[in-house]
Specification:
four-stranded antiparallel β-sheet; globular; 19 helices; single chain; about 15% strand; eight-stranded mixed β-sheet; alpha/beta
Length: about 600
């Protein structure tokens, strides 16, 4: 038996023709839909990149217990389990996060692996001086991660001069494996590209597929923030994404051609998937992580071919998600699932079009905890501005690109986890609101309830206490099933021993903390954007900075005659709180003022 998984990063299904898009060019995804079953109600589980990959290995939710980090010593790993049962596994990838601190134990779970260098901010280049950077639209990374910004431009210089694109090399190497082993048995290969993740860079032939008259500054890396760019800039970045998507489509076609030419559909499981989507201006948002986890991010494309069943060119609406992928692959190879794995094999879905679950949880660690049954969707936000209590549970204390600091570890205690296989694990308090790499405090957005049947675009949150109570009760039950730590309920303001009613939902809303809950907000008049900035900036401060923040607002307003707080006042406040240049400050205030 053989299995191939082609994995992309940040693949927005709404821009695929096979999911209804009418302006992008993705003919090979159309071919794929004809050769597989296409899933319409497939959800991510943990977001973003490495949390999703931990789900794919372990078959259980990462985000309830930990943020970004490596495979844990107590984790089950699907490719490792396959190895232990005599099945050869291989990873070929240009996903640079695998080679950082926070991804350092994933690739070693495979029998063999190969890394392709040069994507995004991969520290691959060897130029010691600054590269030539053209005039460009201001973007987050040049301020928050200047080294990433530099690495990206150095990498581009090498890639463009050699015309050797990492994505192409990944598929070249994947096809080399297939050519060498097409007549062998018992193997699994994961051909994984970082694309179409930002920055959206691709060869000219793909950009020419989306002609435009853009005359603005260079722009291929949108910020993780509200849209403040011009209509022309928004259209341009969508075209840049579409060009990279068409490049992904071209390489997918190479795999389909090989499978056709070698009759591999007869005996090869084939999966095409992604970790999460990406927002390209929808609801006036860019990217991911900093906004509510809308379906542009969470409801992701998924294609599956199982040669034992032979079903193809059909659509399935059953509720499934990322944690089902490892269970599906293990079941295909006849390997039992470990008891800690919460995902389910999708062969039953293919045979009977019956869901393997009633509800799906998804989210980022320390942000919203979201639940859907495929029709209703509920986003549960933090109950307080502090987003506390919040802990990391790990034996591998690493962030994306650095090890936890001694300060972060200073209050660590050792505890048991129900799925820890007897290991004591570190329980590490997330002390700073900036320590959590999701950098989204859900408090500032509040709880949200959507009826996806009537409002698939999630534009009109419902005020329906009865249905909200039903979703809260389902959320509590699913969190219990998945061993959520007690403080997660506390952070979300949930009584996990209570059966919620409409009256309780109304009572909780009446007692909840809002903008008006802070005494300082009653002392002045506020413009709408100033309200957004007040909450947004408050959610980014450490506990020690909050009193200083309120004092600075008073200090600034005491010296003006008009007692209406505006965005301009926050420029003065921000300069005193952050030691930063005016360009960076202007950029962040402009973004915060759009949050709602």
């Amino acid at each position: 038996m053989k299995a191939i998984m082609v994995m992309y990063d940040s693949l927005n299904k709404r821009l695929l023709e096979s999911y209804g898009c009418e302006w992008t060019k993705t003919p090979n995804f159309n071919r794929l839909a004809e050769k597989t079953v296409i899933f319409d109600n497939f959800y991510a589980a943990s977001l973003p990149c490495m949390p999703a990959r931990r789900d794919i290995h372990s078959g259980r939710y990462n985000f309830l217990h930990r943020s970004w980090g490596p495979i844990e010593p107590f984790d089950n790993s699907m490719p490792k389990i396959l190895q232990e049962h005599g099945i050869y596994t291989r990873l070929v990838s240009d996903h640079d996060h695998y080679w950082e601190d926070g991804g350092c134990t994933y690739h070693t779970m495979y029998s063999s692996w190969e890394a392709v260098r040069g994507q995004e901010a991969d520290p691959w280049e060897y130029r010691v001086d600054m590269p030539d950077i053209p005039k460009h639209v201001p973007t987050m990374r040049e301020f928050t991660h200047p080294s990433w910004w530099r690495h990206n431009w150095c990498n581009k210089e090498l890639i463009h001069s050699s015309n050797e694109w990492p994505q192409n090399l990944v598929f070249d190497k994947g096809l080399q494996f297939l050519e060498k082993n097409k007549d062998k048995d018992n193997w699994f290969i994961q051909i994984e590209t970082f694309d179409p993740h930002e920055p959206f860079d691709s060869p000219k032939e793909f950009q020419d597929m989306y002609p435009e008259n853009y005359t603005g500054d260079h722009f291929d890396w949108p910020s993780y923030a509200p849209v403040t760019e011009t209509t022309e800039e928004v259209r341009h970045i969508r075209n840049k994404y579409a060009a990279l998507l068409s490049m992904c489509d071209r390489n997918l076609g190479r795999i389909l051609d090989f499978m056709d030419a070698n009759n591999m559909w007869q005996d090869t499981l084939f999966i095409v998937n992604t970790d999460h989507g990406f927002m390209l201006g929808e609801k006036d948002w860019w990217a991911k992580s900093v906004m509510p986890c809308y379906n542009e991010l969470a409801n992701i494309p998924f294609f599956l071919w199982d040669p034992r069943i032979g079903k193809k060119n059909e659509r399935i609406n059953a509720l499934c998600q990322t944690i089902d992928i490892p269970a599906t692959i293990l079941e295909y190879f006849g390997v039992d699932r470990p008891p800690e794995m919460k995902g389910h094999p999708l062969s039953r879905v293919l045979k009977e079009n019956k869901s393997v679950r009633k509800y799906a949880l998804f989210g980022y660690h320390g942000s919203f905890v979201n639940i859907t049954d495929g029709e209703m969707l509920y986003m549960r936000a933090a109950a307080s501005i502090s987003n506390q209590p919040l802990y990391e549970y790990t034996l591998m204390p690493m962030h994306q690109d650095k090890i936890f600091s001694p300060e972060e570890l200073s209050e660590t205690v050792m505890v048991d986890l129900p799925f820890g296989k007897g290991c004591k694990v570190m329980k590490i308090p997330v002390k700073s609101r900036l320590a959590n790499p999701t950098f989204c405090n859900s408090f500032q957005y509040g709880h949200k309830l959507f009826d996806l049947r009537l409002d698939p675009e999630q534009l009109y949150p419902l005020n329906d206490p009865m249905r909200e109570a039903d979703m809260i009760n389902a959320l509590i039950a699913e969190m219990k099933k998945n061993d959520a730590p007690i403080e997660q309920y506390q952070r979300l303001g949930l009584d996990f021993n209570y059966t919620y009613t409409a009256d309780r939902v109304i009572e909780d809303k009446h007692n909840s903390i809002t903008f008006e809950s802070f005494p300082i907000t009653k002392k002045y008049f506020w413009t709408q954007d100033a309200k957004h900035i007040f909450i947004g900036m408050l959610s980014l401060l450490t506990e020690k900075q909050v009193d200083e923040y309120f004092h600075l607002i008073d200090e600034v307003m005491e010296n003006v005659s008009d007692k209406t707080v505006t965005r301009k006042h926050f420029e003065t406040i921000g300069k005193k709180i952050y030691s930063t240049d005016e360009g960076k400050l202007f950029y962040f205030l402009n973004k915060l003022s759009r949050i709602n």
